[in-house]
Prior knowledge:
Blueprint: H1 2-5, H2 11-23, H3 26-35, H4 42-58, H5 61-74, E1 78-80, E2 86-88, H6 92-100, H7 102-113, H8 119-135, H9 147-160, H10 166-171, H11 186-213, H12 217-223, H13 229-245, H14 251-254, H15 257-268
Antiparallel strand pairs: 1-2
Helix pairs in contact: 2-7, 2-11, 4-5
Amino acid sequence: xxxxxxxxxxxxxxxxxxxxxxxxxxxxxxxxxxxxxxxxxxxxxxxxxxxxxxxxxxxxxxxxxxxxxxxxxxxxxxxxxxxxxxxxxxxxxxxxxxxxxxxxxxxxxxxxxxxxxxxxxxxxxxxxxxxxxxxxxxxxxxxxxxxxxxxxxxxxxxxxxxxxxxxxxxxxxxxxxxxxxxxxxxxxxxxxxxxxxxxxxxxxxxxxxxxxxxxxxxxxxxxxxxxxxxxxxxxxxxxxxxxxxxxxxxxxxxxxxxxxxxxxxxxxxxxxxxx
Length: 275
């Protein structure tokens, strides 16, 4: 399930919703607020985060190495949240929540952008997401082991913990200053810098629209993010176009780089009779 979902370009539309749910936890939000470079280097941070996520799924032996690197990176991240409570990034409750958000977002967003998952597919997706948690160094005792255990845990976090933190408000603020992209060919970057005053406002509105729209409704409500019936209809129209267009794209446009490489290597791997 993850092999197909996580490397598809449609996953790029899903990730902001998961990130926003993560930082809606006061401890996670404080860690990002105080230690992340998302304000000064948003494009670089986004690129690094995306590559890391892709390695968990398509990296083979490199997945475990990446999981260890992330834990080492977070080892010194600690402080006090907005409620005066001490936090450490590797505290199981906080690290596990960051991981946990992926499953409900993939499940919900797939209904719009890919297809409705069957019960068997949901169970398979959850089992695979548990394996991602193990790659990240999360113990089984700190993750719900079945879907039946997951949903009460998830609803409890929504009810008891999540709020519109400072970072959440920044992520959905369409007036938040964001520098132009600093990745890609020099000529493209120059054009983007010149056009950025015109491009940034509609892109910011689109990001907010997709972030809130692809977030599970119960999480959206828990955080206090508004969503109207008119916006829901717009999202459904947009999703119909995406579902029609993406499956017919050539592979080089449909899949992200690490996913393309992994899919190519899998096709080239000799079968049992050829060994």
